[in-house]
Design goal:
heterodimer; A: 234 residues; mainly alpha; B: 477 residues; four-stranded parallel β-sheet; three-stranded parallel β-sheet; 22 helices; 7 strands; binds iron/sulfur cluster
C-alpha cells in the first residue's frame, strides 16, 4: 500500500512539475517587460537571476523580516536536502562525511525559519488578510516534516540501514518493503503529501521564477527587435 | 466613497475600439474564455497566476494602498482578485476545493470588484521591484482590463481617449488647424521673447527628426515651457525637425487598457508618418508611459525601423537627445537663469521602472539628473526610498487621470507628496522637475490640495528653456 502511494506521489511530482514548466515554456512573452534597471546583456541576466535565487535580492529590498525567515528556511532546506542524498546514493562519496553535522544543524534552522514564517503569517495583519487555508496548510506540512525529521535525529533513532535500502528501491523503481519504524513512515507520508500538492500549488515558484519575464529578459528592445510570435504582421 | 471608481464606458466609446458596446449576454463564460486565451498568450500572466507565495513583501509598496488603506489595494490582493477566478476555472485545486484555496466564481460581485480595483492601479510597477519573483501587478491589471473590455465592461475615460486618437489624432482631440495655429502663436511668442526665429514646424517632409510629444505639451501649462525648451534645443543645435499633425500624440493609452491590438494601432500612426516624412530619426518628448511604449514596444509592434539612420537609437528620448548635444558642446547653458529654483526630480515610474536611456543600465536615472545639473545650480534628491526604481507614482498614471477618480488621485499622491514636502521644508525645494505629461497634469491639480503651489511643477526641458543661450555658439549638425 505504502509503495503504491509512494510511486503515485513520485510520478505526480515528476509529471506535474514537468507539465507546469511546459506550460510556462510554451506561453510566449509577447513584449519586452523587464523591470528596470535591468541588465543589457545575457550574462547580466544570468547574474541577476543568480542573485535572486541565491540571495533573494528583491525580497531583501522588500521586507527584511520576511527575508530573514524565508532565507533561513530555504538555505537550511537546501542543506538538509543535500544531506538527505545520503539515503539515496550508493556508494556514498566521501564528501558526505563533512556535511553531516552542518546538515543536522540546518534541520533545526529550517524548523526555526518555518516557525517564524508561520507566526508572522498569523501575527502581521496584512499577511493574515492575504492568507488562505492553503497557505497555512503548506507551512504546517513543512513544519511537520521538519519536526518528525528532527525527532528521528535526536530522540527516536530508526534503523538507517533498513530505511536506506527501502529508499534506494523506491527511487530506482525496484519496489520496496514498508520500513518498520512508525515515525519514519509518518515522516515519509508527509513528504509524499508534499510531492502530491507541489505541482498544483504556489510551491511552483521553484520553477516559475526562472520564467518571470520581468526578471529574465535582457533590456535591449531598441538594439534587437523582439518578435511576438502571435502577432506577426505585415 | 465618491470618486474612487471610474465611470463605465458606453456604446459610443467601446464600439470604435472593436469592443462590445454593452455587457455581452454570456459575459461570465466569455470572460473566463478570454482569460484562458490570455493565459496562453502571455507568459507573464500564466506564471504570475501560479507562483505568488503571498509573502506580503509587495503589500505596503503600492501608493494606493498607502493612501487609501484599502486592503484590496495591496498589490498581492489586487492580483488575487484575478487569481481567485483563475484558480476556480483553471486549476484542479480550485475546481475541487474552491474554499480552501480561495477560488472565486466570476460573478457579479467579482466583476464589480474587478472594475473598482483594477482601475485603482496606475500600472506603475513599484510592486514588481520588491517581489521575489518580479510579479508585476501592472501586467495583471492590464489583463483584467482587457478581459473586461472583451465582455463590454469598459472604462469611459481611457476608451474615449483612444477613440480620439483614432478619429482626430491625439488624446486631447486637437484638430490639425488648431495645432497649426498654436505652433504659429508659440513661434511668435519665442520671437518676441528671444529675438530669434525659433521654429516649431509641422508636417515638414524631409526634416531630420520627427518629434513626437504628448499633445498636452501643445496646450497645457506647465507642459508648454518644455515644448519651447525642445524647440530651442533643435534651433541651437541646427538640427531640422518636425511635428506631425497625423501623428501628433506620443501617449498610447492602448497600454493602459492592456490591448495589444490597440497599442499596435496607435503606435502605427507614428511609424507610418516617419516613413512618409522621410525623417532620419524619431525623438520622443517628456511622457512616461509614451516613452515606455516607444522604447520597449515600438520595435516589436511596428519595427523594424530600418529606414531611419542606424547611428541613432530608435527612438530617442528628448533628454538623451539634449544631453548628448550638451556633452558634444553644442549647447550653452546659463545656470544662473534658474537660480531662483531649488530643484528636485520625480522619477516617473514608466521611465524609471520600465525603460532606459543611454547605453548603460540605469541611464534613465542619470541622464535627466545630468541635464538638471547642467541647467540649474541647486539640485536636491528626495528620500532614497522614493527615487529611482523605488520612486512613487504621482497617483494619476495608468489611465486614472480623470476627475471621476479624484479622491483616489489625491490619496495615491500622498507618499510622493510626503517625500516632496520634506525636501521643501528642509532644503527649500521649490521646483519638481518632471519628464511625464501625466505626472505634470496630476501634480498641477493635486499639489495645491496639499498646500503646495501649482508653480512648483515643471518639466526638465522647462529648465533647459530657461537656461539655454540662444545664439551663444554655433550649433553642430
Ligand atoms: S511580493 Fe510577490 S510573491 Fe510576495 S505577495 Fe507580493 S506578489 Fe506575491
Ligand atoms: S503596479 Fe503600482 S499601482 Fe499597481 S498595484 Fe503595483 S504598486 Fe500599486
Ligand atoms: S503618471 Fe507619472 S508617476 Fe504616474 S504612473 Fe505614469 S509615469 Fe508614473
Amino acid at each position: 500500500m505504502l509503495a503504491l502511494i509512494a510511486y503515485l506521489a513520485l510520478l505526480t511530482f515528476i509529471f506535474g512539475f514537468g507539465w507546469r514548466i511546459w506550460t510556462y515554456w510554451r506561453a510566449p512573452a509577447p513584449l519586452k517587460i523587464p523591470t528596470t534597471p535591468a541588465p543589457v546583456c545575457k550574462s547580466g541576466v544570468v547574474w541577476r537571476m543568480f542573485t535572486e535565487v541565491a540571495f533573494f535580492n528583491s525580497l531583501f529590498k522588500g521586507n527584511k523580516w520576511t527575508w530573514l525567515g524565508g532565507y533561513l528556511f530555504h538555505a537550511a532546506l537546501a542543506l538538509v536536502l543535500i544531506r538527505h542524498l545520503r539515503y539515496f546514493v550508493q556508494p556514498l562519496p566521501e564528501a558526505f562525511a563533512y556535511i553531516q553535522t552542518v546538515g543536522i544543524i540546518a534541520g533545526l534552522a529550517m524548523v526555526g525559519g518555518l516557525g517564524f514564517l508561520l507566526v508572522r503569517r498569523f501575527w502581521v495583519a496584512r499577511t493574515r488578510y492575504i492568507s488562505s487555508f492553503a497557505d497555512y496548510a503548506i507551512l504546517a506540512l513543512l513544519l511537520a516534516i521538519g519536526v518528525t525529521g528532527l525527532l528521528m535525529q535526536y530522540v527516536f533513532r530508526p534503523d538507517i540501514v533498513e530505511i536506506k535500502s527501502a529508499m534506494l528501491g523506491w527511487v530506482t523503481f525496484q519496489g520496496f518493503p514498508t520500513p518498520s519504524d512508525a515515525l519514519f513512515v509518518v515522516h515519509f507520508l508527509l513528504v509524499l503529501a508534499l510531492m502530491f500538492v507541489f505541482p498544483f500549488s504556489k510551491l511552483m515558484h521553484l520553477g516559475g521564477i526562472f520564467f518571470s519575464p520581468t526578471r529574465n529578459q535582457v533590456d535591449n528592445p531598441r538594439e534587437r527587435k523582439h518578435v511576438n510570435p502571435w502577432a506577426v504582421v505585415e | 466613497m465618491a470618486h474612487l471608481r471610474p465611470y463605465p464606458a458606453s456604446d459610443k466609446h467601446m464600439t470604435p475600439l472593436d469592443f462590445p458596446g454593452a455587457r455581452v449576454e454570456d459575459w461570465q463564460q466569455k470572460g473566463v474564455e478570454k482569460l484562458g486565451e490570455m493565459l496562453q498568450k502571455y507568459r507573464s500572466l500564466q506564471v504570475y497566476m501560479d507562483i505568488c507565495v503571498k509573502c506580503g513583501a509587495c503589500a505596503d509598496k503600492c501608493h494606493y494602498y498607502l493612501g487609501t488603506g484599502d486592503p484590496n489595494n495591496m498589490p498581492v490582493q489586487r492580483a488575487e482578485l484575478l487569481r481567485g477566478v483563475y484558480r476556480r476555472y483553471f486549476t484542479p485545486a480550485g475546481k475541487l476545493f474552491p474554499k480552501l484555496v480561495r477560488a472565486t466564481e466570476f460573478d457579479e460581485t467579482t466583476l464589480q470588484k474587478w472594475f473598482t480595483y483594477f482601475h485603482q492601479c496606475s500600472q506603475c510597477r513599484r510592486c514588481s521591484v520588491f517581489c521575489p519573483y518580479g510579479i508585476d501587478t501592472a501586467e495583471i491589471s492590464m489583463a483584467a482590463r482587457e478581459i473586461m473590455d472583451a465582455i463590454g465592461v469598459g472604462h469611459k475615460y481611457t476608451t474615449e481617449i483612444v477613440g480620439k486618437v483614432h478619429s482626430i489624432g491625439n488624446n486631447l482631440g486637437i484638430p490639425g488647424p488648431a495645432l497649426t495655429g498654436t505652433l504659429q502663436f508659440l513661434e511668435d511668442d519665442l520671437l518676441d521673447t528671444t529675438g530669434h526665429e525659433i521654429r516649431l514646424p509641422l508636417d515638414q517632409e524631409g526634416a531630420d527628426v520627427l518629434l513626437i510629444t504628448p499633445s498636452a505639451d501643445f496646450f497645457s501649462e506647465p507642459h508648454i515651457s518644455s515644448l519651447m525648451g525642445y524647440a530651442k534645443v533643435f534651433h541651437q543645435a541646427g538640427i531640422s525637425y518636425t511635428f506631425s499633425s497625423y501623428a501628433s500624440e506620443a501617449a498610447n493609452f492602448g497600454m493602459f487598457i492592456g490591448s495589444y491590438a490597440q497599442k499596435q494601432k496607435i503606435a502605427k500612426r507614428i511609424a507610418d508618418k516617419a516613413r512618409d516624412l522621410r525623417v532620419k530619426r524619431i525623438v520622443v518628448g517628456e511622457c512616461g508611459h509614451a516613452w515606455r511604449v516607444a522604447y520597449s514596444f515600438w520595435n516589436t509592434l511596428n519595427g523594424p525601423f530600418d529606414f531611419l539612420d542606424p547611428n541613432y537609437p530608435v527612438p530617442q528620448h528628448i533628454c538623451e537627445f539634449t544631453h548628448q548635444l550638451n556633452e558634444r558642446g553644442a549647447l550653452v547653458f546659463d545656470k544662473e537663469a534658474n537660480d531662483d529654483l531649488t530643484v528636485t526630480f520625480h522619477d516617473s515610474c514608466n521611465v524609471a521602472r520600465a525603460s532606459r536611456m543611454g547605453a548603460s543600465s540605469g541611464g534613465q536615472f542619470e541622464i535627466p539628473r545630468a541635464l538638471i545639473r547642467a541647467t540649474a545650480n541647486k539640485f536636491v534628491e528626495m528620500d532614497a526610498d522614493t527615487i529611482r526604481e523605488r520612486t512613487f507614482c504621482c497617483g494619476g498614471g495608468g489611465g486614472l487621470l480623470t476627475d471621476e477618480l479624484m479622491d483616489l488621485r489625491v490619496r495615491g499622491a500622498m507618499p510622493r507628496v510626503t517625500a516632496l514636502k520634506r525636501v521643501m521644508e528642509e532644503d527649500g525645494v521649490n521646483y519638481v522637475a518632471l519628464i511625464c505629461a501625466i505626472c505634470k497634469a496630476q501634480f498641477n491639480k493635486i499639489l495645491p490640495m496639499y498646500g503646495i503651489p501649482m508653480e512648483t511643477v515643471g518639466g526638465v526641458h522647462a529648465l533647459v528653456n530657461n537656461a539655454i543661450q540662444i545664439g551663444a555658439k554655433r550649433g553642430i549638425v
